[in-house]
Fold:
Amino acid sequence: MIYINGRFLTQPMTGVERYAYNICKALRDLQQPFTVVCPKAQSILPCYDVSGFQIVRYGIGSSHFWEQCILPFFLIGKKDYTLFNFTGLGTILVRQKVMIIHDLSFLHNPKWFSASYYWWYRVMMPLAARSSRHIITISEFSKREILKYYPFLDENRVSVIYGAADDTLFQPHANEEPSSVRYALAVSSLDPRKNFESLIKAFEGLNDCQLYIVGSANRVFSQRNNLQQHSNIKFLGRVSDNELVRLYRQAACFIFPSVYEGFGLPPLEAMCCGCPVLVSDIPVLREVCQDAAIYFNPLDINDIHTAIEHFLCLKDTERAAMQERGLAHAAHFSWEQAAKAIVALS
Structure:
């Protein structure tokens, strides 16, 4: 029997929550029986359509306390099960579990995170990994990072299961009305490793194109970089999925300046919507985007600026070719394949 830690359904949908949610939808579409166990004290957020999910509301408390101390009681007496944890930490008290490690950015650069976040994950992550039957991660790059920082793990205990864009949502639309404003789009939480400060500086002098930034600051990250407003830059905050799709479709291009990622889902979402993609030249994005993107050095503001200028000067035929490469490349990633790999681990 597959049980899924459903605490993510009570949290706003960012990248890791979207991964968990799409895995659950794909399992449902495969008609694979599974049960999602959620904290009784918290409501499932309306951004999640859980129709067709078998959901159990259980126990007291919320957050890490519920996950580590209460959820294990639900499993007492149950046999032949696997508990899957697709976000955060797997409970260290359950050994019949498979947990995901999206990335180890908190070890790569602790300065990106608050002290409480860093120490919690530094202590708990290896305990959770040691007590797991198997580890999932989301790229070959992240697998190498996991084996580097946690050499006690056998590489056969770590499987790569790629995510994908939700192709029922993120898709091109031939009849989309063009935007009256030429803009580049960036989508991410506004934390330091996403490198928005450099992107904003790179946009200085690009008067014929605006930059729209979708996302909100996360309180667990150190707010060392004060992002300032500029006349050609708009911070849109969180937007609905439908609005996000519209922004992807109407954007001149999508820019992803991150200096560290476990996978990088937004570039695939942009490709699925027919939006050309410019991304950081870092190993994981080379792995994920391959020849379907334009690359720049995220640590070099002049190189980011040059890459954007170069794209904006492309001929219509060259931009159309980028769109076609992106659509073809994104189609190689599938939530159905991911769900089947999950079932094989249960």
